[in-house]
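Human: For the file, kindly provide a plain-text protein record giving the amino acid sequence and the backbone structure tokens, at your earliest convenience.
Assistant:
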Amino acid sequence: MRMEDERRSENVEDMRGASFGGMKLAGGGIGAVIVVVIALLMGVDPSQLLQQLPTSSAVAPSSGPTQSSPEEDRLKDFVSAVLASTEDTWGELFRANGRNYVDPKLVLFSGAVQSACGFAQAAVGPFYCPADQKVYIDLSFYRDLRQRFHAPGDFAEAYVIAHEVGHHVQNLLGISDKVHAAQQRASETQANALSVRVELQADCLAGIWANRADHARRILDSGDLEQGLNAAAQIGDDRMQLRARGYVSPESFTHGSSEQRVRWFKRGLESGSTKSCDTFAVAQL
């Protein structure tokens, strides 16, 4: 990706020097299992997870000097550029539709973080918290993306941010609240199915960003699209479950299969239009 000349966002909060000494799961057991399972999924709403995981008494974060490697410095600069690009893209799209786009904050943390949705550990992966309109990411996730999920490349890294910003767009449009209300009235299987539609729509919205940003600034290089599509495929529920337990349970999907994630990401990439991203209007995903 050609991001060297792009502006950097002012909405990045670096919390990597903060520590949460009192944070640990009580008792391990099923709580630890839940964390491991969720760690295999990207873009989780942590409020649903954290309601199930009791913690010891909270300790206020203590700030300290941020220790960062040259690679982390590069990643911080890169995600700041990607975030700025999403701000420009969605700001323009919202204005064109008579709406005001509120920029999300992006919080960098290491190990654990306190969000408005509760405590979260790095194991949950990158996530968006609608309560404070912030995207959270531990930069070590990108190492996992390359090594564990076999999805290398800077466009794969950008896709992660764009997907979470997609959840912010859903939040601003009122989609998140409507889905959450519907899930409260639904069975577990039905709630999971709604979650899949939310996640696939966020994939499609990430594709819209890539389409619009590239048309405006020519940020994509040869091979970038393949990196993004590979990342979408590698984090499909079916592949994640096969890695974790050796078999697939479609009724427990919360993010969509590899094929679905690739298809909806491509829809946004190819169309550049939000009209193509209504995952709630189609019977077959």
Observations:
- Confidence is low (pLDDT under 50) at residues 21-65.
